[in-house]
Amino acid sequence: MPWGDAGPPLPAWVTAARTRPLVYLTFGTVPFVALPVLREAARGLAGLDADVLVAVGPGSDPAAVGPLPAHVRVERFVPQAAVLGHADLVVHHGGSGTTLACLARGLPQLVLPQALPDQALNAANVSGAGAGLLLEPHEVTAGAVADRARALLADPGYAERAGRIRRSIARMPGPAQTVPVLRALVTGR
User: Fold this and answer.
1) pLDDT for 28-41, tens place per residue?
2) Of 40, 140, 148, 181, which one is least surrounded by beta carbons within 10 A?
3) Transmembrane residues, as ranges (predicted)?
4) Mean pLDDT, the chain, as a whole number?
C-alpha cells in the first residue's frame, strides 16, 4: 500500500520531461550522522549521465554536501512519496520506510547500510531478491557508488525484479481488509 507524507511541492525540474534517468539519494529524515557517506555517494552519482536529487534531511545543511555539478541538486527535504513517482533509481541507507516505499513502487535500489541492524538486513534482502545492489560501509567510495548505479540503470533485470515485488505488494490486503481481521483476533469475535 503506497504511503507517504504531504509536503512542499517537488522542484519543477523533478517533474519536467527528461531525457535521462533521475537518481534519488537519501538517508532519511532523521538527524544526519553519516554525512561523509552521503557526500561520497553524491560525488559518485555526479559522474553519471543522470539527473540527481540529493535530500539531506530537514535538520541538515545542503551546503555540507559540498560543491557538485549542476545536474546534481541538493535539497533539505522533498516529499519522498512524490519523488519516487519520478525516480529511476534510489540510493539510500536501507531504512525500512525507504526500502519498502521503493519496493512498493518497483524501483531498483542501491543500498548503503549504516549503523542500524535493520539497514543491513534490508540491504541484503533487496540484493538477494535481485531488486538492487548493496555496498557495505567499508566499500563506499565515489567510484564504487558510480559503478553500482551504472549497473543498476543499465540492466533492466533489476527493474523487472523490483516490478515483480511491486505487483506482489499490490496484491496484499489493505487496511480495509486487514483491520476487521485484527479486530476479530483481539476481541475474539
Assistant:
1) 876 556 788 999 99
2) 181
3) none
4) 93
